[in-house]
Amino acid sequence: MTSPTTKLNSGYEMPLVGFGLWKVNNDTCADQVYSAIKAGYRLLDGACDYGNEKEVGQGIARAIKDGLVKREELFVVSKLWNTFHDSDKVEPIARKQLQDLGLDYFDLFLIHFPVALKYVDPAERYPPGWTGPDGKLEFSKATIQETWQAMESLVDKKLARSIGISNFSAQLIMDLLRHARIRPATLQIEHHPYLQQQELVKYAQNEGIVITAYSSFGPLSFIELNMSSAENTPALFDHDVVKSAATKHGKTPAQILLRWATQRNIAVIPKSNNPDRLSQNLDVTGWSLDQSELDAFNGLDLNLRFNNPVNYGLYIPMFA
């Protein structure tokens, strides 16, 4: 089984269901990527900050060598980290990331956060993280316009087929669209029933920007980070609305949560190292929730965000 696709404004087709690489351990990453490709995943969503791109590349290379897939059948996503926003730093780091992945181009390259931090030489520390050696935040003066123009040059040089953004607000997107020569193809955001961001989703989709949801299972991804707000929030898998729909459709709670997104043309990037769940998470497009179930999901919105720098002790109130 493979995922159906959605067409980006760049003209390329992107799978609606992908395999997310956040928090995939280096020692298992290559095998997990290989298993995901074998299970039918064609979209792989990674980032410089995840620190596992070499291993991702190893998994891809093995899958191609074994004839599981051709490069052109994959849709590989990565992201520009905050410390590389200065215009002269974008292309060099993109080339390094491609070298780590063993690829000639990204299918999609995103600005990870709308936060520009002081440059850190990859030879000194990689991935750089949020803070300097002294534990302090140091900001760069790079503007979003400067960074975006450098991103556009990656398309011109065929290093990226499509470019996009992540964790941007509607206001920032409005500003970016005023000067963008190449419009962002996608917007990746935290999106689950407890954080639905309906107006942001509507605005981006109206502008022809495809939404990708991360952390589709809500607090589950953050409990292991010892985040108190996640630990104190009821698990979505156990919520009556989700469980009821799962029973009705003969699906798992995870499938229900993923279908809630894909039914509205929102791409999802779950991860699992369980073969059964890998297959189940791909099966989230060929059936539908009914309107009463969608209405019930609307009532779960708490505007509860987990992936916020402030929650990690970093004073960057970017979602304030």
UniProtKB/TrEMBL annotation:
<dbReference type="InterPro" id="IPR020471">
    <property type="entry name" value="AKR"/>
</dbReference>
<keyword id="KW-0859">Xylose metabolism</keyword>
<feature type="binding site">
    <location>
        <position position="112"/>
    </location>
    <ligand>
        <name>substrate</name>
    </ligand>
</feature>
<dbReference type="InterPro" id="IPR044487">
    <property type="entry name" value="AKR2D"/>
</dbReference>
<dbReference type="InterPro" id="IPR023210">
    <property type="entry name" value="NADP_OxRdtase_dom"/>
</dbReference>
<comment type="pathway">
    <text>Carbohydrate metabolism; D-xylose degradation.</text>
</comment>
<comment type="function">
    <text>Catalyzes the initial reaction in the xylose utilization pathway by reducing D-xylose into xylitol. Xylose is a major component of hemicelluloses such as xylan. Most fungi utilize D-xylose via three enzymatic reactions, xylose reductase (XR), xylitol dehydrogenase (XDH), and xylulokinase, to form xylulose 5-phosphate, which enters pentose phosphate pathway.</text>
</comment>
<keyword id="KW-0560">Oxidoreductase</keyword>
<dbReference type="GO" id="GO:0042843">
    <property type="term" value="P:D-xylose catabolic process"/>
</dbReference>
<dbReference type="GO" id="GO:0032866">
    <property type="term" value="F:D-xylose reductase (NADPH) activity"/>
</dbReference>
<keyword id="KW-0119">Carbohydrate metabolism</keyword>
<feature type="domain" description="NADP-dependent oxidoreductase">
    <location>
        <begin position="18"/>
        <end position="299"/>
    </location>
</feature>
<dbReference type="InterPro" id="IPR036812">
    <property type="entry name" value="NAD(P)_OxRdtase_dom_sf"/>
</dbReference>
<protein>
    <recommendedName>
        <fullName>D-xylose reductase [NAD(P)H]</fullName>
        <ecNumber>1.1.1.307</ecNumber>
    </recommendedName>
</protein>
<feature type="site" description="Lowers pKa of active site Tyr">
    <location>
        <position position="79"/>
    </location>
</feature>
<dbReference type="InterPro" id="IPR018170">
    <property type="entry name" value="Aldo/ket_reductase_CS"/>
</dbReference>
<feature type="active site" description="Proton donor">
    <location>
        <position position="50"/>
    </location>
</feature>
<keyword id="KW-0520">NAD</keyword>
<dbReference type="Pfam" id="PF00248">
    <property type="entry name" value="Aldo_ket_red"/>
</dbReference>
<comment type="similarity">
    <text>Belongs to the aldo/keto reductase family.</text>
</comment>
